[in-house]
């Protein structure tokens, strides 16, 4: 559980630092897009318990190209948020990449713990210990109490719906599917960013962002379809091809 705690700390720390320099849309695109690539490398090359197929490589390659297209659009000021400074772009992108890598390793290791019989509820209850301790020491008790008094309801809402409930579902998803599939599905989060940005008047419509996000989603579907084909029983596959 130490590795799960450490990667949870790094992923959340990278997330909050990245948001100091860039808007959430960049974080969502880059952090989730590196997931399938890192997952494929770790599970296929290092751990060698999930062999990469051609469709996996195609899907990851398409995600990488789409991700760089989105990063270029944001850097050149063609995204929905306009231009940002070079230092903010570099700092935010670096911390986003670190956070995405930590999040991916966390998902992979949580899956391995599930296979060893560790229940998702126990993983969820134990993964934030290091993060809580670090946060208390880094911020100090007085700012924590002041912030809790001023923004208590908003923090509780984010903690319950944004973290506890979603991570609980994620742990069960990791238990019942492959780590690569989990990473692939999480790439769909930029779609939600696109939808919510459309509801916010401070964001202008961007054709570049729309194309890049839809392209990422397309290659996600290709990766999920490839996983389904590999796990499909031979009898069902033969029947489908005959039809």
From TrEMBL:
User: Where exactly are the transmembrane stretches of this chain?
Assistant: 28-47, 54-75, 87-109, 121-139, 151-170, 182-199, 205-226
Q: Name the UniProt key words of this record, in alphabetical order.
A: Membrane, Transmembrane, Transmembrane helix
Q: Which domain of life is it from?
A: Bacteria
Q: Which organism is it from?
A: Acerihabitans sp. KWT182
Name of this protein: DMT family transporter
């Amino acid at each position: 559980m130490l590795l799960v705690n450490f990667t949870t700390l790094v992923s959340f720390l990278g997330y909050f630092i990245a948001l100091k320099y860039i808007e959430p849309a960049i974080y969502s695109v880059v952090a989730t897009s590196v997931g399938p690539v890192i997952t494929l490398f770790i599970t296929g090359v290092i751990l060698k318990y999930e062999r990469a197929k051609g469709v996996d490589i195609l899907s990851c390659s398409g995600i990488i190209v789409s991700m760089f297209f989105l990063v270029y659009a944001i850097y050149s000021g063609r995204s929905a948020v306009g231009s940002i400074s070079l230092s903010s772009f570099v700092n935010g992108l670096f911390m986003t990449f670190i956070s995405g890598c930590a999040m991916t390793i966390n998902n992979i290791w949580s899956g391995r713990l599930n296979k060893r019989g560790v229940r998702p509820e126990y993983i969820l209850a134990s993964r934030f210990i290091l993060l809580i301790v670090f946060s208390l020491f880094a911020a100090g008790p007085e700012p924590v109490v002041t912030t809790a008094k001023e923004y208590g309801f908003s923090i509780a809402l984010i903690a319950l719906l944004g973290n506890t409930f979603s991570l609980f579902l994620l742990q069960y998803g990791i238990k019942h599917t492959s780590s690569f599939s989990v990473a692939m599905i999480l790439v769909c989060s930029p779609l939600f960013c696109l939808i919510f940005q459309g509801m916010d008047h401070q964001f202008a419509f961007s054709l570049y962002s729309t194309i890049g996000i839809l392209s990422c989603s397309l290659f996600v579907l290709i990766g999920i379809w490839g996983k389904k084909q590999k796990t499909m029983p031979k009898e069902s596959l033969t029947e489908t091809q005959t039809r």
